[in-house]
Specification:
Radius of gyration: 38 Å
Signal peptide: 1-27
Helix content: under 10%
Keywords: Signal
Protein name: Pre-peptidase C-terminal domain-containing protein
CATH topology of the largest domain: Jelly Rolls
């Protein structure tokens, strides 16, 4: 998702105009630049015209140097009309050589104003007072007035990523530097991360860069900048945040080859990403964000009866490298199982995503499923599947199965002891081929063996294959003599769990 920034534009003022009374006769405007002026007894009041291109703030700095023997005191005012007696929007008094006016911000509406200067001193007699004055007026970055805050969407699944609900932002006429920067706030509840998607509505720009800041002055950046290029139809980014609250995005328009681009519109949508532990409901997805590799998120879930607990991680991409690690914890967050790392399979319902699945056979209760995914953004969902059991609890009570007739079904939860076993039996009336076909859901290790009526083992799963975690099927087939045979199923590790079903057939299995 990340792109290399072509240019980083520091958070600064949009333009600076240095005004001078020496150019009043030349109809001064915000683009005029000069150095200093002088005020003395003969000419102790001056003003000049000043245009505010749009609603926003202007920052005033005024510094004076005494040229006479009696120190001067300066008053600076922003006025609505020309003339010493016109209404004042803002007035600053008591400016001296040792007490200059520094970075005073004034909020103004779009329109024409006058900045005036008036000289005085402590005695009231100006004959020995004169000053040199340097004043700068700096129009600060303005915010979008029609969108006071970017809307942030909360989503629980990839299906909620839609083309609706975008915020439209726009830059101004493109001539003045103040029209090339927009600062817009947004507020998040989760505060783990934010998913940013930008769409281009026009092509009259080179690029639009964005940077997230913690403060409205845009001095404390959060993460790297991101960019929408003029050749991009859309651009998507993820940025880590430092907690819930309000942040600010500064968007900057870059159009090096154009003197004027006119109004430039683009679309932005933000999604609040959750990276915290949480309580989930069976069957309901939740979208998760991991800001760094190896971060663990605990999902608290409650099941009401013995079942297969299914944990699904659905990643945003279909890369063959996608995987996830799982661990089952009890209601006190004490580990029940070991960590299992599972590779993903392409989701048949969505070819653009990868599904990583883990299954546990559990008793009723509250659990935490601890997950670490290789993808920074993924959808998690817990589900359940029922379990059935028809096995006998001992060899003497073995469940009779008929070839090509009925199934053997059973399960072992993590709470069952390794000494517990399921028993089945079947009869062979004449020398014939018999095949046992088994499907299972496994966490950990299990084993099964086939033995004759005398208790001699003729096949043992663990001596021929390695039981793999996940959902698998296996089969064993051979010609058997007339007699009764037994099947014994049990788990190997105390924390393991398994659910299985098998059938008997006279027909060889075809893969």
């Amino acid at each position: 998702m990340n792109k290399v920034l072509k240019k980083f534009i520091a958070c600064a003022v949009v333009f600076i105009a240095v005004f001078s009374l020496s150019q009043i006769t030349a109809a001064a405007n915000p683009n005029d630049t000069t150095t200093t002026i002088g005020l003395d007894k003969r000419d102790n009041y001056e003003d000049f015209e000043f245009d505010m291109p749009k609603d926003g703030k202007v920052k005033i700095n005024a510094q004076i140097w005494d040229k006479g023997t009696v120190p001067g005191i300066l008053t600076v005012a922003i006025q609505e009309k020309y003339g010493e007696g016109s209404p004042k929007v803002k007035e600053f008094t008591g400016i001296t050589a040792i007490a200059p006016l520094t970075d005073l911000e004034v909020e103004l509406s779009e329109g024409k104003y006058y900045i005036s200067y008036k000289l005085s001193n402590a005695t009231g007699d100006l004959k020995d007072t004169s000053i040199a004055l340097k004043c700068t007026a700096e129009v600060l970055t303005t915010t979008v007035v029609n969108i006071p805050e970017l809307k942030v969407s909360s989503i629980n699944s990839f299906d909620e990523l839609t083309n609706k609900g975008y915020n439209e932002l726009k830059f101004g006429d493109g001539v003045q530097e103040s029209d090339k920067n927009i600062v817009v706030p947004f507020t998040v509840k989760n505060g783990s991360g934010v998913y940013i998607t930008m769409l281009s509505k026009m092509s009259n720009f080179d690029e639009i860069t964005g940077t997230i800041y913690k403060d409205k002055e845009c001095t404390k950046a959060v993460g790297k900048s991101f960019m929408l290029d003029t050749v991009d139809e859309n651009a998507n980014y993820i940025r880590t945040l430092s907690g819930s609250g309000t942040y600010y995005i500064k968007f900057t328009l870059e159009n090096d080859e154009r003197e004027s681009v006119g109004e430039t519109k683009f679309l932005v949508k933000l999604y609040d990403l959750n990276g915290a532990d949480r309580v989930i409901s069976i069957g309901k997805p939740t979208l998760s964000y991991q800001d760094k590799s190896g971060k663990k998120i605990n999902y608290k879930v409650t099941v009401k009866k013995k079942c297969i607990l299914v944990a699904d991680v659905n990643t945003a991409t279909a890369s063959q490298s996608e995987a996830a690690s799982f661990r089952l914890l009890d209601g006190n967050k004490k580990p029940i199982t070991k960590v299992s790392k599972i590779a993903g399979d392409i989701d048949e319902d969505n070819k653009e995503s990868m599904l990583v699945e883990k299954l546990y056979t559990v008793t009723a209760g509250t659990y935490y499923i601890q997950v670490t995914a290789s993808s920074s953004v993924y959808q998690f969902k817990a589900g359940t599947a029922s379990v059935t059991h028809n096995a006998g609890s001992s060899k003497a009570k073995a469940k009779l199965l008929k070839i090509d007739k009925n199934l053997g079904t059973g399960y072992f939860t993590y709470a069952d002891k390794t000494s517990k076993a399921d028993w089945y039996k079947f009869n062979v009336s004449s020398y014939q081929y018999v095949e046992l076909y088994m499907a299972y859901y496994l966490d950990g290790k299990f084993d099964y063996e086939i033995m004759n009526s005398k208790g001699k083992s003729i096949y043992r799963y663990s001596k021929n294959f390695t039981g793999l975690e996940g959902a698998y099927y296996i089969w064993y087939g051979n010609y058997l003599e007339n007699g009764t045979y037994y099947v014994k199923v049990h788990k190997v590790d105390i924390s393991s769990s398994v659910s299985y079903a098998f059938s008997l057939s006279n027909t060889p299995h075809k893969d």
